[in-house]
Amino acid sequence: MLDCNKFGWKANDAAETIKGNMFSFGCILFFIITNGRHPFGDDPYSREYNIEHNNMVNENILINFLEALDLISRLLSVNPLNRPTAIDVLNHPFMWKSEKKKDLIYDAGDLEKNHPLLSQALESISVEEIIATDHQKVIDPTTTWDQFIDEAIISHMTHFSQYDFTSVRSFIRFIRNLCIHYKQCPKYIKDLIGVRNRNDLYDNYFTIIFPKLFMKEGINPA
Question: Is-above-0.85 flag for pTM?
């Protein structure tokens, strides 16, 4: 059992406060997700130094789990005022089930015509923002979202409707339509996507290609 009162598990501001506890929770969450690794290093004697200097040496372990990395980075913020509350943690996309992500895409896709403010928020998000990260190569500003989806899937979907490949708003409509009509998709399309049902489209297909999709303001209402 972990003893979070020991060194290497507490923040520098580690009075017994709620914000201090959230830091410890971030370390524990990282430990669980990574099967026993510590965000500030596997050597217990170097962790205190790394915590003091805000050096999360094992950060790259979560490079392919950006929702988890985003939440944990917030929990481990050097400024305790920037750490999320327990409610914030529960509202973070990392904690959502696939069904909630599906419902959110449905809402964003259906409401943008009738709610101009939401429409503007979606339109203000660039394609680069939902793909690129600090750990990935810089993407050209002219990048379009269709470049990251199999050409056969794009061809199949554009047979029924037209999309603006420069618009995140249009991309959300694309996801919604693919989900709605997934059962009617031919087998070769389902094989390319590689998921068993339409709910898995989000966690096991789109959020892998577009890892920041649900963390953008305008898509994520939390």
Answer: no
